[in-house]
């Protein structure tokens, strides 16, 4: 196998596959990258056994030249060195030896056996689903952060995606909060749960100025974007019915400036050990309060509107609410309450997507 690649293409390809390549795997061959030099392109594959990414470099404009077709597995150490080179780089692999030359530079590395590299069997889907890159990025950004980090319930480490004629719904929860986005509809009925880690990696690897196409199957999912395909196993099991957690109406609604509210939470959160603060509505103001054994603090905010009882008090995780606010682009947000012991819902006042963030209150003794 022999081919030439510009250093720019090498760096671009490595930036796309690096997140999967860095993941630890018990399979030694997966520490390397599978290179396949074909007639009209070079394919790079990286995998950790659960997630895989395939990036295609087409032969065009002289930035990629195929002199001899073939297949080899290059080590990560080799590629880390190659990323330092500039200009047109020549790769020549014979047997288990890889020679890399670039002007006055000559490098030699051992390669791994490509026959040992697992086959990435991407199932064809009869129902591909297309997102604009912007829409896909927003859905991931507004849901992936709220998944569970504990492995006690693995299904909660993913974002549940349901597609139907009644509307597409994307949900995540860690049992203490819930993030949900609704966007578009689909002629069919699909329900899958994708690992949040996969979604975050796709967003970081993809060019979101182009469409993202989702190819679901029974046990796997593939996301395609231009010359890159990200492939992952789905999470197994039934995702909990989160729709029943979302109230249909509210006893009271509070409208606040999002920036002022978020800045107040981030300030007072620093004064607490468990991130819990208290919100109190009194007269024309909302007061955010943090109390610890050796310190206390508060900040008053003027609300934009409020239609509930005076002297309403509720406690909650400032961290959860602050993270929810970061996903919203609206200048103002609405918080719907049904008492101080039931979950409350945060929505942006102005929104392009139908979205909400639900947070459970904290019972204070």
Which structural class should the secondary elements be placed in?
alpha+beta
How many structural domains are formed by the residues? 3
Proportion in β-strands: 35-45%
CATH A-level architecture of the largest domain? Roll
CATH topology of the largest domain: DNA Polymerase III, Chain A, domain 2
User: What is the number of helices?
Assistant: 6
Highest CATH level, the class of the largest domain: Alpha Beta
Report on this model:
This protein is of the alpha+beta class and 365 residues long. It folds into three domains: 2-116, Roll (DNA Polymerase III, Chain A, domain 2), CATH 3.10.150.10; 129-244, DNA Polymerase III, Chain A, domain 2 (Roll); 246-359, DNA Polymerase III, Chain A, domain 2 (Roll), CATH 3.10.150.10. 18% of the residues lie in helices and 42% in strands. It is built from six helices and 26 strands. The chain has helices spanning 7-21, 76-82, 133-143, 196-205, 258-269, 318-326, and strands at 2-6, 32-37, 41-47, 51-58, 64-68, 70-75, 88-94, 97-102, 105-110, 129-131, 158-164, 169-173, 177-182, 189-195, 212-216, 220-225, 228-233, 252-257, 276-282, 285-291, 296-302, 305-306, 312-317, 332-337, 344-348, 354-359. It has a nine-stranded antiparallel sheet with strand order 14-11-12-13-26-25-24-18-22. An eight-stranded antiparallel sheet has the order 6-2-3-4-17-16-15-10. α5 (258-269) runs antiparallel to α6. The longest helix is centred in the N-terminal third of the chain and has 15 residues, at 7-21. It is elongated, with a radius of gyration of 25 Å. The relative contact order is 0.11. The model has no long low-confidence stretch (mean pLDDT 93).
